[in-house]
Amino acid sequence: MLNVPAAVRFTSDVWDEQIIPTLCEYIRIPNKSPMFDPQWEANGHMQQAVEMLAGWADNMSIGGLQTEIISLPGRTPVIFAEVPSTGGDQTVLLYGHYDKQPEFSGWAEGLDPWLPVIRDNRLYGRGGADDGYAWFASLCAIAALENQNIPHGRCVALIEGCEESGSFDLPFYVAALKDRIGNPDLVVCLDAECGNYDQLWLTSSLRGMLPGTLSVTVLTEGQHSGAAGGIVPSSFRILRNLLDRIEDSQTGTLHECLHVDIPQHAITQLNQVAQTLGPVVLQKFPWAGNTGPEADDVTEVLINNAWRPSLATVGLSGAPEVHNAGNTLRPMTCAKLVIRLPPTADAAACAQTIKSVLEADPPYGAQVKFDLDTAQTGWLAPAPAAWLEESAERASRQVFGRSAMYMGMGGTIPFMKMLGDAYPDVQFMVSGVLGPKSNAHGPNEFLDISTGKRLTVCVSMVLADHAARPT
Questions:
Q1: What's the pTM?
Q2: Fewest beta carbons less than 10 Å away: which of 80, 172, 305, 307?
């Protein structure tokens, strides 16, 4: 059995002496995902980041560790690492990503997306929590086992550079590396949320995503608003009208094609989460003024977030900044839409229906187009095997002092669905450090360092139990 106090000390030392300093340097690299930096290859930030992360592995005392940067033409490189088994012939696949979201605005004084800052044992900066730490935590978890001569199965790590863009490069690497990956029976993913920083959280489902750009064009060039008003329809008003086709602006309810039947076990699970977290679920957001949630019942908002579709308009173009806006009727308006889909909704079918609904019979005959990005189907985890459920519970109690919790997550990790389809019998440990106010994708993203350390030890314990389980 793993000596947990010794593993905690070992892990903490590795984090303090090796992981945190390297994570700080990683945060300084603006290696935005290719959707946000189309010139990523020429700019070189992605290559700089992947070389830094792969090179760090040389610091780890892991027997037989082999690390390789693999680059397919025109695609973001991946890190592929392999550690031979020290107990049994099982394979564990550890997954993460190193690409980052764009800067966003609103960072607090003294903070910056590309400036690592440690405050109150939290490391601020873009990509530390989402998801740069995963590579370091995965190798550290293996090293903690080998430090005590605790057996583990064969471990394969795959760290991609396209997750924040929908992982459109990843299928090509999975195909190219299929024989080298083998047949994993456990997947460890550290790119998820945690409901608090007090216990181990395991993700039981992920929503899908349907991103696209809706554009409305009414003129070839702008016109004086006085001369054109009342004659030329507003592109913005038409866009509002089109959005009403897929979302009720009063209630936020989305088109019927986007809904699914919610499993009763998911509702029961989220009710348990509501009882554990209570109003913390709502308090974690920086509400402006008297703004409140879409529902007052905590269970209801958790179900909304995990199992019901939602729409966010994440970008707008075609209009000048307010301080520079003349009295001109604009020729066009574009909106970047992101629809989050229930875990079991077919993203491709939803995409085609929504595209048809938005583009059909445009008001006033305006030019309307909905350009789809990569539609991503969500994921529903299989029921955990008895050994995994017991291992997670024991790890959470011994490392955090509280029971493990399971929760559906509102975000998307495309690789989980891909793996679930490829390996129907695989078990999943999907967890992460994205807790209250950690704010991945937004301003002031941070990594709670203590949670990162504890989660690393929990992964070590699960890896040890995986190798020792009855087969």
A1: 0.92
A2: 172
